[in-house]
Design a protein that fits this description.
By secondary structure, this protein is an alpha/beta fold. It has 15 helices and 14 strands. The protein has three domains: 91 residues, Winged helix-like DNA-binding domain superfamily/Winged helix DNA-binding domain (Arc Repressor Mutant, subunit A, Orthogonal Bundle), CATH 1.10.10; 218 residues, Type I PLP-dependent aspartate aminotransferase-like (Major domain) (Aspartate Aminotransferase, domain 2); 101 residues, Aspartate Aminotransferase, domain 1, CATH 3.90.1150.10. The strands form three sheets. An eight-stranded mixed β-sheet has the order 3-10-9-8-7-4-5-6, with helices on both faces. The longest helix is centred in the C-terminal third of the chain and has 27 residues.
């Protein structure tokens, strides 16, 4: 017998079971669909209704529906709702939810390691993104990428049989040489090709560095608010994360050093602080290097969006300062410059870390495949990368202005847009007392990706905000996205 639209069976959620609530909820709904309790074509409750009925947050309800959609059990139609598919997936994928033992804790054999628990507990809502949602930060202008030229270069790349083996753990020599020349011109960094290691992106670099540099309990200075990629890797390896406030001049280095003068490491985004967009001033850069050298500590320079300053030349990298080469690891990725699926980044290492990093890299996996590396090397050698960056500065400046204007026109009293001089996103502050995570969840229900700034904090703040990306959206789409965002405010 077909159930009425919106009817779901009782689902027992166990907050202490060891699996996130959204996975427990999606598993309960999946079983109801597979068993026939909920028939194909049935309209499921709204995320707000599901959250109310199950006594969970709306974010949990949204994530549960997303999980089912990824697995092919439901489809979502903007403005209409979420429906069970008429044809179920060929392969039934189930999520094992650990059953509590007699003492109320998950069975020992199914429990996570301490490192795994720290990772999941700190980042329960990490997005496994598929596709590009409107206003998603850190997405480049994919519509402006020269795909025909890239395909031509890939077809011209010849990989000899001798290079089809595991390859150098540091990555292809030709790409590393191109990177050495590129950073010398754009970031004033002088380095040897042997100090460059190719990675699959910044996150792999953070994970390897955390593995190499931290013992449990070591402290690391991070920006507050700040990018959570590095923090997630450091916390996973047992580091004590020390949030250091960010102001108009970037991380307050003096405050951080006074909090933990013996910190093992400081991780900064000095050229375009994420998410606030601040530029770490020269006095603080020099102070950071002096501290690291004196304390025997390390600096990770995550040069996020360093290429896209709208006015004036970018600051030189911290790694280029006198004496910084012995204590600074420079991290960058091509995913935000070109396209995310490229999955290529690099580190420039102090001499003392070159061999340890290469060893750790080799123990993890093979280096990235040779064809993308060689294609990127040729792309750089022929000058296409620099031309693309120059074009994108103009594109992003126009898109930034368009998003700012649309927010001012549509939400003038609800959002206070912070100034921005670089990058591919804006920060928009909410009125005090408004929960940015709740607004973000409602925006997701409208098909708009508005990251809550609280997601990038370790400490509570008296004001929430949204991180809104404009890089991946043409100007006409930005206006439409802001109108959808406005619906999230009711």
């Amino acid at each position: 017998m077909r159930r009425a639209d919106g009817a779901i069976p009782p689902i027992a959620l166990q907050p202490d079971a060891g699996a996130p609530l959204y996975l427990q909820l999606s598993e309960g709904l999946r079983q109801a669909i597979v068993s026939g309790y909920i028939c194909g074509g049935t309209r499921l409750p709204s995320t707000r209704g599901l959250a109310r009925d199950m006594d969970v947050s709306r974010t949990t309800a949204i994530q549960a529906y997303r999980q089912l959609e990824l697995e092919g059990y439901v489809v979502s139609a903007v403005g209409s709702g979420t429906y069970v598919t008429d044809e179920l997936p060929d392969r039934i994928v189930s999520v094992a939810v650990p059953a509590p033992s007699s003492n109320g804790h998950p069975d020992h054999e199914r429990s996570l390691s301490d490192r795994g628990r720290r990772m999941v507990d700190r980042f329960p809502d990490i997005e496994h993104r598929h596709g590009v949602m409107p206003l998603l930060p850190a997405v480049p202008a994919l519509d402006k990428f020269p795909y025909k030229m890239w395909r031509r270069i890939e077809h011209e790349v010849h990989v000899p049989t001798s290079e089809l083996g595991p390859g150098d753990a540091a990555g292809h020599l030709r790409l590393r040489r191109a990177i050495v020349e590129h950073v010398a011109v754009t970031r004033a960094i002088r380095c040897d090709v042997d100090q460059v290691v190719i990675t699959t992106g910044a996150q792999e670099a953070f994970s390897i560095l955390a593995e190499l540099l931290f013992d449990p309990g070591d402290s690391v200075l991070i920006e507050e608010p700040g990018h959570r990629g590095g923090a997630s890797a450091f916390e996973a390896f047992g580091a004590e994360v020390v949030p250091v406030r960010v102001d108009a001049d970037g991380m307050d280095v003096d405050a951080g050093i006074s909090l933990h003068p013996d910190a093992r490491l400081a991780c900064v985004t000095p050229s375009n602080q994420f998410p606030m967009g601040a530029l770490l001033n020269m006095r603080r850069r020099i102070g950071l290097v002096e501290w690291a050298r004196a304390a025997g500590s390390w600096i990770i320079e995550d040069d996020y969006d360093c290429e896209y300053r709208f006015h004036g030349a970018p600051y030189p990298a911290i790694r280029s300062l006198e004496g910084a080469d012995v204590c600074t690891v420079y991290v960058n990725a091509f995913t935000k410059i070109l396209f995310p699926a490229l999955s290529l980044g690099f580190v420039i290492l102090p001499d003392a870390l070159v061999e340890p990093f290469k060893t750790a890299r080799a123990l993890r996996d093979y280096p990235p495949p040779p064809v993308p590396q060689l294609a990127l090397a040729k792309f750089m050698e022929e000058g296409h990368l620099m031309r693309h960056i120059r074009r994108m500065r103009q594109v992003y400046e126009v898109r930034e202005a368009a998003l700012r204007d649309a927010l001012h026109e549509t939400l003038p009293t609800l959002l206070e847009v912070a100034p921005a001089t670089a990058g591919t996103h804006l920060v928009a502050w909410l009125p005090r007392g408004v929960d940015d995570q709740e607004v973000s969840a409602r925006a997701a229900g409208e098909g708009v990706f508005a990251l809550p700034i609280s997601q990038f904090r370790h400490q509570c703040a008296d004001r929430g905000g949204l991180v809104l990306g404009f890089g991946g959206s043409p100007v006409p789409r930005l206006g439409a996205s802001v109108r959808r965002l406005a619906r999230a405010f009711g």
